[in-house]
Amino acid sequence: MDLFAQLDTVSSRHDVLRHPFYQRWSAGELTRSELAVYAGQYHHAVVALADAAEAAAQSAEEPVLREQLERHAAEERDHVALWEAFTHAVGGRTDARPAPETEACAQAWTGDAERPLLRSLVALYAVEAAQPAISQTKRAGLAEHYGIDGEGSAYFELHETLDVHHAAAGRMLIEERLDGVDAQTLVAEAESVLRANWELLDGVERLNGRSTAR
Q: What is the Cα–Cα distance from 165 to 128, expressed in whole angstroms?
């Protein structure tokens, strides 16, 4: 099985669209207060995605790649304002204190100064490859069940299409760097960031007083 087939398997195993929180979102069963808690917590993940791209840029030795990743990071940083518009639309707080699960997710996504470039690229790819379907599902649920569209759902509308391109570009960068690499370390990186996303939602459920059994 090649690397990307293995990454697809990991993504399927941690598909957050199967998480009870997102299932209730799609069914229109969340309260506004539950959405507000989620928005405040996931705000930290949105920031972490920009941090991850920035960290990857800093570890890139080739100037062209560094510039590409810096543009990616700046783009994601700009999207924080779109997330904040969603947060305001559901009555959430942009300064919400992160739950332990949220902190762990942000750390897994951002990585540390020791994470090599290729693992950083895989972490970004794992997150962004899943985003188009997730964003489409969330945007549809917001419009159908919660009356939120326009600025309130602009973040999701953008990521439905933008992350198709981000993931494709990321895949190309990864493919160029696979010679002699231990694929299992890359699969483990993807597993870490995707599991952390699921567990962030567990934390949201816990904050909302709901069970987090998987």
A: 9
Nearest to 57 by CA among 127, 110, 134, 15: 110
The pTM for the full model equals 0.95
Domain boundaries, the chain: 31-207
d(CA 45, CA 38): 11
Give per-residue pLDDT as tens, 14-51. Answer: 999 999 999 999 999 999 999 999 999 999 999 999 99
- Report the distance separating Cα 123 and Cα 186, nearest Å: 8
Is the distance from CB of 163 to CB of 46 less than 8 angstroms? no
CATH (residue range 31-207):
1.20.910.10
Q: How far is CA 94 from the centre of its chain?
A: 17
Closest-CA residue to 123 (of 67, 180, 69, 203): 69
Give CA–CA dist 193/106, Å, rounded. Answer: 9
Round to whole Å and give the CA distance between 213 and 28.
21
